[in-house]
Amino acid sequence: MRSIWGLLLLFLGQTVAYTIPTVRFEYPTMRGFRASIPDTPGLQMFAFHARLNKPFEQFEEGDYTEDITVPDEEGRWTYDTNKPALPNGTIIYYWVYVQFANEGYWLTDKKHTVIRTKATAAPRTTTTKPTTTTVPPCPATLTTLNGGQSTCAGKLIFEDTFELGSFAPKWQHEVRIPLDTDSAEFVSYQNLPENSYIAAGRLVIVPTLVTQSADYNDERIRTGELTLAGCTSPTNNPYECQRKAARSTILPPVVSAKLNTKHHFRFRYGRVEIRAKLPKGDWIFPRKHTHN
Ligand SMILES: *[C@@H]1O[C@H](CO)[C@@H](O)[C@H](O)[C@H]1NC(C)=O
C-alpha cells in the first residue's frame, strides 16, 4: 500500500494545485461528531472514513463513513453522525479522500483525540455559527428511569463502584430458592456474609456448599427442612421460601447470592456496562438480568 501511495504522489507531482486542509472536528454533545473541511471552488467530493480507538491497516471503509457531495449551508463539506458516544480521550482514526478538479487527493493515517473541557461540551471554535455551538443542555432521549422519569441523552443514570462498602440503598438481596433458572434445584440465594460482601471497592459473590456449614449433615440434606427468613419470592410462591427434603427432593446443596436494584433504580432503554471478574469452575456461572 505504501509503495502505491508513493507512486501516486510522483504521478500527481506535476499537477498538484490543491492541498487538503486540516479536518475540523466538533462534538457538541456526548454523542457523535462532525468532521469538515472548508469549501473551495473545484471541490467535488469529500469522502470521510473513521473508526474509534483502532487504527486503520488499509483503506478500509471505516465504521463512520460517508461520501459528502455538497457543502452545507455553513460553506463546509461536513460529515455528521450522532451515533457513537465519545468520551474524553476517544481517538478518532480517520482517512480522507477528496476529489478536486477531477483529481483525487488523500489524507491517510490521521487521528484526532477528543478533548473535552466540560462533561458534555466541546471547545468552541471561533468560526462556528452560533446555532451549532449552542449545546442543548439536555438532549432528548427515549430513556426513562424509575417508571417514567425522563433524563438527558448521554447522561449516566446509575453507577455503583462499591466504594462505600454498603449494599443499601442501591442493592437488595434476593432470598429464595429460585424456580426460574435451569439449576433451580441446586441453589438457594441468601443474604449471608460469606456469600456476598463488598471489599476494596468490589462486590464479591461466592457460592458455598452447604457441606461447608457447621450444622451440615447428610441426614439433613435428604430429610431436613429449609425455611428462608425474609424470603423475597417475586411470585410469593411458598415453594421458593421453604423446602422439605423427601425422597428425590433434596435441599439445595449450594448457597449463593443474587442482588437487584429494583426498589432503588429501574430504567427503560439504555446501555449497561459491567466490569467483573468471572468465576471459573464447573456449575458456576455469572448472571446479569434486566427484568421488567
Ligand atoms: C479530558 O482529558 C484531558 C487530557 O487528558 C484533560 O486535560 C481534561 O481535563 C479532560 N476533560 C474532562 C472533562 O475530563
Give a description of the structure:
With 292 residues, the chain is mainly beta. Among the domains are: 24-114, Sandwich (Immunoglobulin-like); 154-260, no CATH class. It has helices at residues 2-12, 130-133, 218-223, and strands at residues 24-26, 31-38, 43-52, 64-68, 76-85, 91-100, 103-113, 144-145, 149-150, 172-173, 187-189, 196-199, 202-205, 208-209, 225-227, 242-244, 254-256, 259-260, 267-268. The strands form seven sheets. Strands 4-3-6-7 form a four-stranded antiparallel β-sheet, with no helix packed on it. It is elongated, with a radius of gyration of 29 Å. It binds 2-acetamido-2-deoxy-beta-D-glucopyranose. Residues 88-89, 115-116, 118-119 line the site of 2-acetamido-2-deoxy-beta-D-glucopyranose (NAG). Residues 18-119 form the CBM39 domain.
Q: Which characteristics define this entry?
A:
292 residues; mainly beta; three-stranded antiparallel beta sheet; binds 2-acetamido-2-deoxy-beta-D-glucopyranose
Structural shape: elongated
Strand order of the largest sheet: 4-3-6-7
The topology string of helices and strands comes to HEEEEEEEHEEEEEEEHEEEEE
Straight-line distance between termini: 52 Å
| Bound small-molecule species | 2-acetamido-2-deoxy-beta-D-glucopyranose
Number of helices: 3
Q: Low-confidence parts, pLDDT < 50 over ≥5 residues? A: 1-16, 122-133
Q: Structural class given helices, strands, pairing? A: mainly beta
Helix content: under 10%
- Radius of gyration from the alpha-carbon trace, in angstroms: 29 Å
**Quick check: average pLDDT?**
83
Strand content: 25-35%
Biggest sheet overview? 4 strands, antiparallel
